[in-house]
Specification:
By secondary structure, the chain is α/β, with parallel strands linked by helices. The chain has 2 domains: 204 residues, Aspartate Aminotransferase, domain 1, CATH 3.90.1150.10; 223 residues, Aspartate Aminotransferase, domain 2 (3-Layer(aba) Sandwich), CATH 3.40.640.10. It has 15 helices and 16 strands. The strands form 4 sheets. It has a 7-stranded mixed sheet with strand order 4-12-11-10-7-5-6, with helices on both faces. Strands 1-2-3-15 form a 4-stranded mixed sheet. Helix 4 runs antiparallel to helix 11 and helix 12 packs parallel to helix 15. The radius of gyration is 23 Å and the shape is globular. It binds pyridoxal-5'-phosphate. Pyridoxal-5'-phosphate binds next to helix 6.
């Protein structure tokens, strides 16, 4: 933006004006937030749905469109954090779930929709011979960890910096049983792989850490190292299953011992699953001596498994290909409009999941992502919400098959306008997110306009 180059910019005022616009559009959400804080710690039940100054309360969703409490409309690029691959209230999934519920909410017995979904998953994913359902991806990860401990007699796990396998401390950095290595650094994995490690947990791309693709051969190397050291290789496909009929393991040539599943396999309802090698899964089977007890009142809920089966059936190779092409086009458009606004920006992408980063070099690790300008991400988030595009505060977006050409055109235009607006806000990397430091004057020569 020529008007901003070479001038001293009032950053605080620029951000404040975005906030003013946001508050003006969302007064009912603000009131609901105040109400929520009286009964919910911090006002909400999920961490990722909370952001400054308060989150928009979404009241209704249909296809790729959301409506908030104040009646504002949004194009949805969040899809409940990648779980609604066909958009909100997808007709076939909703009908399947309702039909199941009408016939009996849940039974303490085997049921057909669980059976159908298990058959479908074992057909689609080569390494999945048997499936055990849970209520969430977190529970699936915990079950996989227990299976690995039982199979190896070891109790530590290796996870990657910036990875996310759910909110159980046993799989998070900082826990005494969890060893961490940087993603895309095979030497570091080699050093960390002691004979105490029961399993390595990896995602096909670093999801929550910024949608960082795995370097060619990296995960094959990790899998080989795990096996060479007597550990299991667990691939977390909770997010990535949407990117390939057989999971990303099919295109990466991986053969994990266990695969974690969730999100889309419930068609928008709560679910998780562990799939994998028969001998490992049989450790949970009745009749196995000293079997691993795994139970749960709502495991493999009939409504979720019914909605999930139809969702997967409609996510064929053609649909995945269309999603991927739309994501490629959107990434190019976002990159080009940031360049036009003179903002350094990289869009990382894995299939139909993307992440924008305010930096001029493609990040390859979570450490690199942490060095990028997250303050600008907050501004971008607000600027997009103000224009009716629903995205995440961390720059993650993903596509659904419900998006139409006109929705994507609106999204592209909104990004272009948002970049023009926030090009006036420049915060040096290193400032804690949400704090707006006194600006240093910028001159044209300092402006990096490299985009990838
Ligand atoms: C890769 C990955 N694994 C596991 C989980 C945990 O799933 P859930 O939120 O269903 O517990 C998530 C959730 O975002 C995820 O992205």
């Amino acid at each position: 933006m020529a008007s901003t180059v070479g001038s001293t910019i009032d950053y605080k005022a620029s951000y404040a004006s975005l906030l003013d616009d946001y508050r003006a559009r969302t007064s009912l959400s603000a009131a609901a937030w105040q109400r929520g804080r009286l009964v919910l710690p911090g006002g909400e039940t999920r961490t990722v749905t909370t952001y400054s100054p308060y989150p928009t309360l979404i009241r209704k969703g249909q296809g790729a469109h959301l409506t908030d409490l104040d009646g504002n409309h949004y194009v949805d690029l969040v899809n409940n954090y990648t779980s609604l691959v066909h958009g909100s209230a997808y007709g076939p999934a909703t009908e399947a779930a309702v039909a199941v519920l009408r016939g009996g909410t849940i039974f303490a017995s085997p049921h057909e929709s669980q059976l159908r979904l298990a058959e479908m998953l074992t057909n689609r994913i080569d390494t999945v011979e048997l499936v055990r359902f849970t209520n969430s991806g977190t529970e699936a990860a915990l079950l996989a960890e227990r299976l690995a401990a039982r199979a190896t007699g070891r109790h530590k796990v290796l996870v990657f910096d910036g990875s996310y396998h759910g909110s159980a401390p046993e799989l998070m950095q900082g826990h005494p049983q969890v060893v961490t290595a940087p993603y895309n650094d095979l030497d570091a994995v080699d050093r960390a792989m002691t004979n105490e490690i029961a399993a390595v947990f990896a995602e096909p791309f670093l999801g929550a850490g910024g949608v960082i693709p795995s370097a060619p051969g990296f995960l094959r190397g990790v899998q080989d190292l795990a096996h060479a050291r007597g550990a299991l290789f667990v691939l977390d496909e909770v997010q990535s299953l949407r990117n390939d009929v057989g999971g990303e393991q099919a295109k990466l040539g991986l053969t994990p011992d266990l695969t974690l599943l969730g999100k889309i396999i419930g068609g928008g309802l709560p679910i998780g699953a562990v799939g994998g090698a028969r001998d490992l899964l049989l450790l949970t089977a009745p009749g196995t001596p000293d079997r691993l007890t795994h139970s749960g009142t709502f495991n493999g809920h009939p409504a979720a498994t019914a909605a999930g089966a139809i969702t997967l059936a409609h996510l064929n190779a053609g649909a995945i290909d269309r999603l991927e092409r739309a994501a490629t086009t959107l990434a190019a458009s976002i990159t080009s409009s940031a360049a036009q606004a003179g903002m350094p920006l990289v869009v990382t992408r894995a299939g139909s999941i993307l992440n924008v980063h305010f930096t001029d070099t493609p990040p390859t690790s979570a450490a690199h992502v942490r060095e990028t300008n997250t303050d600008l991400l907050s501004a971008l988030h607000l600027a997009l919400l103000n224009q009716g595009v629903y995205t995440t505060p961390r720059g993650l977006i993903n596509l659904s098959t419900a998006l139409r050409a006109e929705d994507l055109a609106k999204v592209e235009e909104a990004y272009a306008k948002a970049f023009e607006r926030i090009a006036r806000i420049s915060v040096k990397p290193g400032h804690p997110s949400g704090q707006w430091p006194v600006p240093a004057p910028r001159v044209a020569a300092e402006r990096v306009s490299v985009t990838k």
